[in-house]
Amino acid sequence: MEMRDLAKELQENAYPGRGIVIGKSEDGTKAVTAYFIMGRSENSRNRVFVEEGEGIRTQAFDPSKLTDPSLIIYAPVRVLGNKTIVTNGDQTDTIYDGMDRQLTFEQSLRCRQFEPDGPNYTPRISGIMHIEKGTFNYAMSILKSNNGNPEACNRYTFAYENPVAGEGHFIHTYMHDGNPLPSFEGEPKLVAIPDDIDDFTDMLWNSLNADNKVSLFVRYIDIASGKYETKIVNKNQ
Questions:
Q1: Parallel, antiparallel, or unpaired for β 189-192 and 30-38?
Q2: SS3 state at 185
Q3: What is the CATH number of the domain that holds 58?
């Protein structure tokens, strides 16, 4: 698979929607993830990321302007033991609860579908990172309508064992801006993962469309110790 230039991918797409990146740092010592949200409506743009336990949640920047919290207020990141869950919706809780009951990542998502926001039927994208005894692997999932037909749900899971240092994968909700918004297609995109969390955070934030970007979360987890460093950037301050 051809490696994509992540900065270029973002700069050339005014509205990728929400996106997840997971991979391994170039020096091979860190498990890396990033999650960003964008918005076109006032309700979607009226959000910030805040830390909650070992994860994060979204909350309204101005509670008086919040209209419908159903698809925009959720916990994108939760930690279950040596697993870090990253998703674009409340399926984070579904995965957490399922894996806590010994279900697999894929099994946990069987009870969920794409979002009920027709005509877009936004895909649910999810990632799981597993670090154990100095090893790291991850998987990514997308649940999407069948080419805009809500009568059928297409389910795809991509698993990456012993990922290569300096490589990661990027999945996002929309191919580009539009009405309705066209769902992501194909495999997660192969992208480069640098060693420096500040450089990676700056590149992602500066590459996202200035009008539509809302918040960004980046985490680097030491594979040997499990200790992590987190960066959060919010447009609303």
A1: unpaired
A2: coil
A3: 3.60.20.20
Residue 205 included in any domain: yes
- CA-nearest of 229, 236, 235 to 34 is 229
Report yes or no on 235 lying in a domain.
no
Flag whether the pTM goes above 0.90: yes
Q: Where are the alpha helices (DSSP H) in the chain?
A: 6-11, 42-45, 91-100, 105-108, 197-207
Cα Rg, the chain, nearest whole Å: 16
Instruction: At 174, list the tokens.
Output: 């929309």
- CA nearest neighbour of 23 among 4, 50, 51, 48: 4
- Look at the chain and count its residues: 237
Q: Which residues contact 135 (CB under 8 A, 6 or more apart)?
A: 162, 223
Q: Is residue 112 part of a domain?
A: yes
Identity at 189, one-letter amino acid code: K
Within 10 A of 201 (CB to CB), how many other CB atoms are there? Answer: 19
Span 167-201, pLDDT tens digits: 999 999 999 999 999 999 999 999 999 999 999 99
